[in-house]
Design a protein that fits this description.
Number of domains: 1
CATH topology: Spore Coat Polysaccharide Biosynthesis Protein SpsA, Chain A
Distance between the termini: 42 Å
Low-confidence stretches: 1-6
Number of helices: 9
CATH superfamily: Spore Coat Polysaccharide Biosynthesis Protein SpsA, Chain A
CATH class: Alpha Beta
CATH architecture: Alpha-Beta Complex
Radius of gyration: 17 Å
Helix content: 25-40%
Order of helices and strands: EEEHEHEHEHEHEEEHHHEH
Structural class: alpha/beta
Oligomer: single chain
Length: 255
């Protein structure tokens, strides 16, 4: 049975228990609720026609199922979130033209409007294999922080390179350049490309930077980047990020 959605899109939330920097992260409670369910809330507030949590852990699956969230149990050895999403697309038998937004399970403050924007952006750029978002660097601390991935683009908004290093570098000036952008780690794909992605060999650059999107560029595909205004809070990378994330979620609740 094909479950294609002609007008909507799917949101898939990869949620892995075994994070090196923060084991059990998707189940860590923020304001009394597991982090992954905050992410589900962001997806539910979007225009998505379906929402699926992709996990390899029974504990995460049980929490999601109790909250009436669709879950797909995936293989444990996927090298990236995109590989995990590709497995979900195969299991669900979504149509090749269906759009999927991959929303990481550690992004509980992602604006729902960005999820919709990303899906629309993929449709507007049929020459791009993937679409993603970025914003102008706000301060030097973020620019030098390796947890904040940077991206440089061509004049059409297609990504040229992603790095944990501060790029682009100004040879004669230490200031943050106007072209500096922080990547928002969320992607939109078409199902037919996900099938191709799963068959691509891991690239040397991907392994060096630990950035899965470099596999796409290395294979010659394009990723369109849309710059959103202002800054977007980064996800929860470490336990040290929990306090600031809870403050942000409280502020979002009051807004």
């Amino acid at each position: 049975m094909n479950t294609s959605s002609e007008s909507g899109f799917h949101v898939v939330i990869p949620a892995r228990y075994g994070s090196t920097r923060f084991p059990g992260k998707p189940l860590h409670c923020l304001l009394g609720k597991p982090m992954v369910l905050h992410v589900v809330d962001r997806a539910r507030a979007s225009s998505a026609s379906s929402i699926v949590v992709a996990t390899d852990d029974d504990r995460i699956a049980a929490v999601c199922e109790d909250a009436k969230v669709d879950v797909v149990m995936t293989q444990a050895d996927h090298p990236s979130g995109t590989d995990r999403i590709a497995e979900v697309a195969r299991v669900k038998r979504w149509a090749p033209e269906d759009r999927i937004v991959g929303l990481q399970g550690d992004e509980p403050a992602m604006p729902s409007s960005h999820i919709d924007l990303l899906a629309e952006n993929l449709t507007r750029h049929p020459d791009a294999a993937m679409a993603s978002l970025c914003f102008a660097v706000q301060n030097a601390e973020d620019w030098h922080n390796p947890d904040r991935v940077k991206v440089v683009c061509d004049h059409q908004g297609m990504a040229l390179y992603f790095s944990r290093a501060p790029i682009p570098h100004q040879r004669d000036n230490n200031a943050v350049p106007d072209a500096a952008r922080i990547h928002i780690g969320m992607y939109a794909y078409r199902c037919e490309f996900l099938e191709r992605y799963a068959g691509l060999p891991a690239s040397a650059l991907e392994s060096l930077e630990q950035l899965e999107q470099l596999r796409v560029l290395d294979a010659g595909y394009q990723i369109h980047m849309h710059t959103v205004p202002g800054a977007v809070a980064h996800g929860v990378d470490r336990i040290d990020d929990v306090e600031s994330m809870e403050l942000l979620l409280e502020a979002m609740t009051r807004a």
